[in-house]
Amino acid sequence: MLDGDGAPVDDAVLEIWQADAEGRYDHPDDGRPADPRFRGFGRALTDEAGRYRFVTIRPGRVPGPDGAPQAPHVNLTVFARGLLKQLTTRIYFADEPSNQGDPVLAGIADPAARNSLLAVRGGAGYRFDVVLQGKGETAFFDF
After folding, report:
1. Among the residues of 7-142, which ranges form H helices?
2. Coil, helix or strand for 67?
């Protein structure tokens, strides 16, 4: 995680919430039973280099507001010094073919902003850099 000057943010908290591998959330509003071995929530702190890590499964496709399946994604919330309100975004997988039809990604007109939501495969998993502002800023959502 980087701040607007490109310096690591060493004291942030990141939370994820995601569906299980079948696209079901562990939440009563989902209405479908989720994998009982998977909670779908995690919290991580950044270290002195701004690094964080989650070990999880790749989520399945979840239904969108119109019932059409969305691309697999992880919901991410960022809490950091200087933020009066948490930031919310999504992490998509750059190698996922269904990204092309995802309504949230399609709703982001700026290609650079859209690309800021793509985690890239590397090593044993995916890398997703969070940039709070400035060049390469991660797209965040207003709720």
Report:
1. 103-106, 111-115
2. coil
Give the pTM: 0.93
DSSP 58-100: PP---B-TTSPBPPPEEEEEEE-TT-SS-EEEEEEETT-GGGG
Structure tokens that stand for 75 in this block: 């919901």
Per-residue pLDDT of the chain (143 residues; tens, 9 = 90+): 999 999 999 999 999 999 999 999 988 888 888 888 888 999 999 999 999 999 999 999 999 888 889 999 999 999 998 888 999 999 999 999 999 999 999 999 999 999 999 999 988 899 999 999 999 999 999 87
